[in-house]
């Protein structure tokens, strides 16, 4: 754990180069740490970390708050969020929401993607996530996220490992098979 703390401390003082030519002065203080995992401007290239660029600011704030209050648990994120003030969480939400996405979209198997679109339509996903899975307020934008991240979150809701949404997602995904969830994740990951 000590080495993890040292790594994060080092990331805070190390210069960070990005595609968008960001400088330390352009970032909220805590965003320097976030980009180590979530990528420059929140454009994660590592499928285990979600893309934050263009995400709903309120959603980012609420997730950070949930990590801080142990309503959502993730070994790297929980301790990071514990150190954040309300103002920093709001600033991070605003910062990442304002960042342009790099447009990375995963190209999945066309048959699986088509099946996923049918699953999404049948499950009425657009009622909350809006058309194109673009999100609104506290409902996340999930289009263009990494396939494995989307699938992991869907399974976490289904299996009761993630419960910080008042049961809304669990109620939807509990009726879907794991194969349906794989198709749905493939579809969402292919939407720009």
Structural description of this entry:
- The protein is mainly alpha-helical.
- The protein has 2 domains: 2-97, Cytochrome c-like domain (Cytochrome Bc1 Complex, Chain D, domain 2); 110-189, Cytochrome c-like domain (Cytochrome Bc1 Complex, Chain D, domain 2, Orthogonal Bundle), CATH 1.10.760.10.
- Helix content is 51%, strand content 0%.
- The chain is built from 10 helices and no strands.
What is the topology?
Elements: H1 2-13, H2 31-38, H3 57-68, H4 77-82, H5 86-97, H6 110-123, H7 126-129, H8 147-158, H9 168-173, H10 178-189
Keywords:
10 helices; mainly alpha; disordered N terminus; Cytochrome Bc1 Complex, Chain D, domain 2; 2 domains; 0% strand; 192 residues
Short note summarizing the structure:
By secondary structure, this protein is an all-alpha fold. It has 10 helices and no strands.
């Amino acid at each position: 754990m000590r080495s993890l703390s040292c790594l994060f401390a080092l990331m805070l003082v190390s210069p960070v180069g990005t595609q968008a030519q960001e400088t330390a002065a352009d970032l909220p203080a805590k965003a320097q740490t976030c980009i180590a995992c979530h990528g420059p401007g929140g454009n994660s290239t590592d499928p285990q970390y979600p893309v934050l660029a263009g995400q709903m600011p309120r959603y980012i704030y609420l997730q950070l708050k949930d990590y801080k209050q142990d309503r959502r648990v993730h070994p790297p994120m929980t301790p990071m969020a514990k150190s954040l003030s309300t103002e920093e969480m709001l600033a991070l939400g605003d910062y990442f929401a304002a960042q342009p996405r790099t447009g990375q979209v995963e190209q999945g198997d066309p048959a699986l993607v088509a099946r996923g679109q049918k699953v999404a339509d049948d499950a009425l996903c657009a009622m909350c996530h809006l058309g194109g899975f673009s999100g609104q307020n506290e409902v996340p934008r999930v289009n263009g996220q990494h396939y494995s991240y989307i699938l992991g979150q869907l399974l976490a809701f289904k299996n009761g490992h993630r419960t910080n949404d008042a049961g809304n997602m669990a109620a939807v995904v509990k009726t879907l098979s794991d194969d349906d969830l794989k198709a749905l994740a493939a579809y969402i990951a292919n939407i720009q």
